Amino acid sequence: MLSFFRKKTSPEQLIGPGQLLCDMHSHLLPGIDDGAPTIADSIRLIRGLYDLGYRHLITTPHVFKEYYPNTPAIIREKLTEVQAALKEEGINITIEAAAEYYLDEHFEVLMQNDDLLTFGRRHVLIEMSFYAPYPRLHETIFQLCTKGYKPILAHPERYTYYATQFEQYEQIKNYGCALQINWLSLNGHYGKVVKDLARKLREKQWVDFIGTEMHHDQHLQGLGRLTKSDEWQNLLSKQAFQNSVLIPADTTLFQS
After folding, report:
1. Which domains does the chain carry?
2. What is the structure's pLDDT at 255?
3. Sign (positive/negative) of CA torsion 55, 227, 256, 220?
């Protein structure tokens, strides 16, 4: 089903010269959120990302107490399982794990207790409801920054309530929060409003990171189609992202 990813193509041909060797938003650990349900699914999706040119993955399972009450211990155990399976399969890709934190009272407790999984340079990935903004968003961002974290708001283009309040994005950035859009937002996967918001954020040069938000085969297939489109090459030629700064300095990336 995914054979079209298996062509011998260099990472630079697929994802540009170095800047996107790292994906920083995905759901690849088996059975702990709405992403890969089994280890076999995890390996298949990771192999697909490898074939697209990625060489370092930061996977970010949901932490949402009501639905996905994941803890650092649960996440690290699943990461170890995936790393062992990748080694057994001979897939030369490095993977680490953090989390995608849903903003709520539980998150604020974790923040106050410094019980957050971070990546890069103390970056932490946060998300909100798709129906209404978190009422304490600005205050929470400020507190994260005060405590030395570097917050990144996941898929801001999917918060469509900001379509008529576009200035909110600038305020979020001014409070010290980076923005990460999804690749598949660019081809209309989530609808026209989301696609238009992603485009406007890019035009404003407010996008810091880009991620796959990989959950399942449909996302992988959509990403594969996108890499063959004019939109992909147009984006790579006009936009610089900061994904590469998230790769640990001691990580050896396999280029073939």
Report:
1. 15-246 (3.20.20.140)
2. 54
3. positive
